[in-house]
Write a structure and sequence with these properties.
It is built from 18 helices and 12 strands. It is an alpha/beta fold. The chain folds into 4 domains: 124 residues, Orthogonal Bundle (N-utilizing Substance Protein B Homolog, Chain A); 33 residues, no CATH class; 57 residues, 2-Layer Sandwich (Alpha-Beta Plaits), CATH 3.30.70.1170; 197 residues, Rossmann fold (3-Layer(aba) Sandwich). Strand 5, helix 14 and strand 6 form a beta-alpha-beta unit. Helix 8 crosses helix 9, helix 9 crosses helix 10 and helix 13 packs across helix 14. The termini are far apart.
Length: 435
């Protein structure tokens, strides 16, 4: 019988060692071992929980260590974090089980530290969750929500303390799952009934054709609805982005950074599968992924092609709608990829220049009277308003318009998870003036 804690330990160790993507790392281990859905769910909860709460866990563990936690060997740190996470954040796990199973792991992977791990976890259990005394500071938010202090400071400065805490609070726990109904094949109500019949809870949201679902342990890709192309998984923010694009029948749409293709699919559905949606990515494998999804959904107006969003192509002609959903820091999706909270500030410094260059390139494809959308899944003024204001300052033939007045009165729209029930996201809409 596979030990779920052992699998979580091995997955976390690989993530720390290889600096890999969390979702890919976890998937590789879930596929490697034969486990039932209950054990898989437990492994996932441990894996993402430790990543999500790493700074909080280390703060608490350090209270009972005589030397900095960074001085311990990685395998001991990982076992301590696993044990502490169960004690502090998993109410249904008895503390005694968390301690005893951690000691068993230690005896297998780092026997020299078994005594230390036992003592530290017992003290953690006795004292419970401890946080810094001084609230209202970036340091307090950093420890409470396990996020690098520089990012907490940035969000406080740019969005205010209340919003910073709202984003961080929404970034913990399991994210909600949303789908976009394939309106070419089925209605919202019909899909809800079909999914309920397969054991998946489903409800409407404030956005048409966007449904909130609860999988109840089911694999979404194994449902008949998914196999038959009745929907695709897509957060509310991305669906709002394509509503802002406002693509219509028989128009031409360019999606410059398309993979994995979700926004292109939604655009094609808005267009009732009439017109052309050209999807681009730098890598053939990712273009193939777009094509495969379009085929499942029955969207034959989607055409995939390998292309670099930074390089202008004269052969493409002009488009009615151009989408630049640019590479970004991802700070708006920490609830889906918690490792983003621990990025170094320096790793993000070059992004605005790349983003601006893609936007400028995309603008060249827009017809007179056409629409250009710039979007990111980042909460960062430099990547968002900074890039857009720079673009407007040198492109007088474009003007900013508000494509979603029901969401915001500002033409530059920032979506926040605690306010909009979506990923953190930014949408700017520009229209090219006609002579």
């Amino acid at each position: 019988m596979i030990n779920a804690r052992k699998v979580a330990f091995e997955a976390l160790s690989k993530l720390e060692r290889d600096s890999a993507f969390s979702n890919l790392t976890l998937d590789s281990f879930l596929n490697k071992y034969e486990m039932d859905i209950r054990d898989k769910s437990f492994v996932s909860a441990l894996f993402y929980g430790v990543i999500e709460r790493k700074i909080t866990l280390d703060y608490n563990l350090s209270l009972y260590l005589q030397k900095p936690i960074s001085k311990l060997k990685p395998e001991a740190v990982t076992i301590l974090r696993l044990g502490a996470y169960q004690i502090l954040f998993m109410d249904k796990i008895p503390s005694s089980a968390a301690v005893n199973e951690s000691v068993k792991l230690a005896k297998k992977y780092c026997s020299y530290a078994a005594g230390l791990i036992n003592a530290v976890l017992r003290k953690t259990d006795k004292n419970g969750l401890v946080l810094p005394e001084k609230e209202g500071t970036a340091y307090y938010l950093s420890v409470k929500y396990s996020c690098e202090k520089w990012l907490c400071e940035k969000w406080i400065k740019e969005y205010g303390y209340e919003n910073a805490e709202g984003v961080l609070s929404a970034g913990t726990g399991s994210p909600e799952t949303f789908i976009r109904v394939n309106t070419l094949k089925i209605s919202d109500d019909e899909l809800i009934e079909r999914l309920k019949a397969e054991g998946i809870d489903c409800e409407k949201t404030y956005l048409a054709h966007a449904l909130r679902i609860s999988l109840n342990g089911k694999d979404i890709e194994k449902t008949e609805g998914y196999k038959n192309g009745l929907f695709h998984v897509q957060d509310l923010a991305s669906q709002l982005c394509i509503k802002a694009l406002d693509a219509k029948e028989r128009e031409t749409v360019f999606d410059l950074c398309s993979a994995p293709g979700g926004k292109a699919y939604t655009a094609a559905e808005y267009m009732k599968n009439k017109g052309t949606v050209l999807c681009f990515d730098k890598y053939e494998a990712r273009v193939d992924l777009i094509k495969k999804g379009a085929e499942r959904l029955g969207l034959d107006i989607i055409k995939g092609s390998v292309s670099d969003a930074l390089i202008f192509r004269n052969d493409l002609g002009k488009a009615d709608r151009v989408l630049c959903d640019v590479p970004c820091s991802g700070t708006g999706i920490i609830r889906r990829k918690p490792e983003i909270k621990y990025k170094a500030k320096e790793a993000l410094e070059d992004l605005p220049e790349i983003q601006y260059s893609i936007l400028v390139n995309g603008a060249q494809y827009v017809k007179e009277g056409g629409r250009l959308i710039y979007s990111t899944c980042a909460l960062s003024k430099e990547e968002n308003e900074g890039v857009c204001n720079r673009f407007l300052s040198v492109n007088s033939d474009f003007s900013a318009v508000n494509p979603l007045p029901e969401i915001s009165s500002d033409p530059f729209i920032t979506l926040m998870p605690h306010i909009n029930s979506s990923d953190g996201f930014f949408i700017a809409c520009f229209e090219r003036k006609s002579d």
